[in-house]
Amino acid sequence: MPLSEVVREVWRTWSGKFSIILLIIMGIGAIAVVLGTPYTKLSREYLLEPTAWATYPKAVPPCWAVSKKAQVINIGFNTSHLKPEVKTKAYGPYTMYNVTWVYSFKYEGQAPPSDTLMKLIVHKSKNLLAYRLYVYMVRPDGSVIHFAKELPVVKEETVILGLPSAQGVTWVSLSNLPLNSAVYQTLVESLSKYMKKDVLAQLGLGTAIWCGKGGRVLRGTYRVVVDAVFYVQGKLKSLSGKTSIYFAARTLPNCYGLMGTDSVGRPVELGIMLGLPWSFVISFYVTFLSAIIGGIYGVLAGYVSGWKSEVLMRIVDVVNSLPFLPILIVAIMALKSYSIWLIMSIMVALLWAPPVIVIRSMALQIKEQPYVEAARALGASTPRILLRYIMPQVFPYLVAIMVLSIPDAIIAEAALAFLGLSDPTVPTWGKMLEFAWNEHAVINGWWWSFLFPGLALTVYCAAFLMLGRALEPIVSPRIRGR
User: Fold this and answer.
1) What is the spatial distance between Cα 387 and Cα 296, in angstroms, rounded to a whole number?
2) What's the CA gap between 276 and 206, in Å, rounded?
């Protein structure tokens, strides 16, 4: 039957329509993500570089599942661009300067942000002595939250908040500050005046600075006050160029995209898209090779007779009796390699046997047909008989077997990934389920972390199962007749 006729027959059934539409959508998505994005770079960042997601909200649900949304604020100012309030006082040959800068902004979100990222960098000239820094935020209810309180600044450039790197100073999360840092201790001391410790621990510092008692968001005008106190010998003609302080803050939303993020900040929808091409590679590699090997082996086992057929079938019985997943785990552990290509090859070595029984029974019937007997009488060689007369007859059934066995490969890989035995450099849906398990997503209520990878596996497998169901009437005349 021509391929066009097969497609028409499949399209006539509801399962065929459903499977074809799903496969077209997934195929276009897989091609688009590979050709339209820096796929290798994104995969490496997704799996091996958690710092790449530092500016993403962590463990937040999809935006459609959140009724009250946080406001995203991105502020930054350098005190050299603000008009300061300066107070001076003489102490013998020294003059004390108290310089204050104020920056105001509004927060009008219906909910507090999931976290707050900050940078705080101080520059000062050498002749500024006994430099002390005060940085605090006055909230809409009048409460004051300190970030730096009487903090000494000795170096000409000091990073108070931030992570120095080759690219400059990167953001630091207030909810992930080191417990022994001065900023952490100052923040905890300030916030403890306004909320209970259990509420503070539940919210995290990056969320709590926007909340009042009970963890409710404080909406209104906020003021960031930067206060520098230092001494100079004599007097300064001008403050210009003597000191500058850079302060920046960025709030992270309490939701993200269509599928949320995991505990590292990786978007779940990105993981779904990155795993889609590998789902096709794994399933087609394993099932195609398994079907080809099993088909050829089954035809040989059906064509030969006597002790040769018995030996071939006993080998099949042994392979079929092996427990698939335990043997797969033992083989990976014994070889001490998590290469995805090795894992797929081991799957092929264990999955080629099931098609043999069906194909052998068909080969036994076909070899007794008159046209095969006639070819043999005319002197046709065994390879010609197998390739010209038997293989074309069993090929449609082999395709149906291959389509129906595709879910086995992808589910097996997901099981290995869930157990931590998958390739760490390959983004798969099973790897996403492993991440969700390791971060205790069920206990923490992060349902989106495991629901969407599980749905992706379900939809992918369902598409091929329904395609196989639609192919059954085509390859089996008896089913077609019903």
Assistant:
1) 10
2) 35
Helix 354-366 and helix 307-321, axial crossing angle in degrees, nearest 10: 150
Question: Residue 141, SS3?
Answer: coil
Tracing tokens 């909320």 back to the chain, one arrives at: 195
Residues 393/375, Cβ–Cβ less than 8 Å = no
SS3 221: strand
Can you tell me whether residue 449 is helix, strand or coil?
helix
Please state the separation of Cα 285 from the chain's center in Å.
Answer: 23
Confidence bin at 367 (pLDDT 50/70/90): confident
CB 482, CB 28: distance < 8 Å: no
pLDDT in tens, 86-116: 999 998 899 999 999 999 999 999 999 999 9
CA pair distance 369, 393, nearest whole angstrom: 12
Closest CA to 102 of 86, 90, 118: 86
Domains present along the chain, CATH in parentheses: 3-61+262-481 (1.10.3720.10), 67-252 (no CATH)
Contact assessment for residue 234 and residue 242, using Cβ atoms and an 8 Å cutoff = no
Angstrom CA distances, 121 to 84, 161, 242, 250, stand at 17, 7, 14, 15
DSSP sequence for 45-92: HHHH-GGGGTTS-SS---GGG-SS-BPP-EEEEEGGGS--EEEEEEET
Q: Round to whole Å and give the CA distance between 6 and 135.
A: 73
Query: Does 245 or 396 have the greater pLDDT score?
Result: 245
Sign of CA pseudo-dihedral 203, 209, 215, 221: negative
Cα distance between residue 12 and residue 6, in whole Å? 10
Could you tell me how far CA 218 lies from the centroid of its own chain?
33
pLDDT at 384: 81
Give residue 98's identity as a one-letter amino acid code. N
Separation between Cα atoms, residue 118 and residue 120, nearest integer Å? 7
Which amino acid type is present at position 219?
Answer: R
Q: Are 271 and 264 in contact (CB under 8 A)?
A: no
CA dihedral 120, 251, 45, 438 (to 10 degrees): 110
What is the residue-averaged pLDDT of the chain? 89
Give CA–CA dist 206/310, Å, rounded: 71
Output phi, psi for 384, to 5 deg.
-65, -40
Helix-, strand-, coil-residue percentages of the chain, each rounded to 5? 55, 20, 25
